[in-house]
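Example 9 (inverse folding). The structure is encoded as follows.
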């Protein structure tokens, strides 16, 4: 009797293994891997672990099958990094930065482009990423470049479950119209932050809204905190130019070039300001 029971258990186990193997070969997607939010949190932990508290990073691009999904991931990653005491450059300013650097906004961003954007924003680390449908799972990947060493500091690859939750999210993003963005939105974190980078973020936003006096005030604070940071001089020069204060614009562009001799846009804007002022080159 015991032998018969033992044999029955062996047969049952064999049948269950066969059924399990068959089910994995039917084309049904499996639920291996992390949740999307779990992958975002793990990548944030890894990035933050390699940086001193208070470091500034810029998430310059993230690609997926849907722009709204990419934006969602960037927002969640930014929030996770802020939770780990890492300052994140305001991504609302990226359109302005791309315009100033004469770059085209697109999903794919080269390392050189990412480094230029990060340097403009005063970041110590630039981050790009992708979420790719691999069939059974999604592949979540982030790549970070340290601007001090100009080399990749980390590449994180994680499997994300292709579950009902992420499929519903993608379907919703594909079906919705992108909501209008409120340009006047300022997060509490950015409002209370008093670092050179945070003042630069706010200065760029005010300039983007044509509030030139507000921009000048914020950028002046950034310069007080870090007189060797070239970008606030350049952006403040743009604000002075818009106000018609060409002498002050010339001073700021000159200082920006002194700090960053390869800044061709500052050189071009300096020439324009001098021409408007009636000065010879």
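The amino acid assigned to each position is listed next.
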């Amino acid at each position: 009797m015991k032998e018969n029971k033992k044999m029955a258990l062996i047969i049952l186990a064999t049948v269950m293994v066969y059924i399990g193997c068959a089910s994995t070969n039917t084309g049904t997607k499996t639920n291996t891997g992390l949740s999307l939010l779990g992958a975002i949190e793990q990548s944030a932990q890894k990035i933050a672990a390699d940086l001193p508290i208070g470091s500034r990073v810029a998430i310059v691009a993230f690609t997926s099958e849907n722009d709204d999904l990419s934006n969602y991931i960037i927002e969640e990653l930014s929030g996770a990094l802020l939770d780990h005491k890492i300052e994140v450059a305001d991504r609302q300013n990226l359109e302005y930065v791309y315009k100033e650097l004469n770059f085209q906004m697109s999903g794919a961003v080269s390392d050189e482009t990412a480094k230029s954007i990060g340097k403009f924003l005063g970041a110590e680390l630039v981050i790009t990423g992708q979420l790719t449908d691999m069939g059974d799972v999604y592949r979540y990947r982030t790549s970070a470049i340290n601007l001090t060493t100009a080399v990749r500091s980390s590449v994180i690859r994680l499997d994300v479950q292709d579950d009902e939750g992420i499929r519903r999210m993608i379907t919703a993003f594909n079906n919705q119209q992108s909501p209008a963005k409120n340009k006047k939105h300022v997060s509490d974190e950015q409002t209370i932050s008093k670092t050179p980078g945070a003042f630069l973020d706010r200065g760029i936003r005010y300039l983007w809204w044509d509030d030139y006096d507000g921009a000048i005030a914020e950028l002046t604070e950034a310069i007080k905190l870090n007189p060797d940071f070239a970008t606030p001089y350049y952006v403040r020069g743009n604000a002075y130019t818009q106000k018609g204060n060409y002498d002050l614009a010339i001073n700021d562009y000159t200082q920006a070039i002194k700090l960053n001799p390869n800044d061709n846009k500052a050189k071009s804007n300096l020439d324009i300001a001098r021409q408007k002022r009636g000065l010879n080159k």
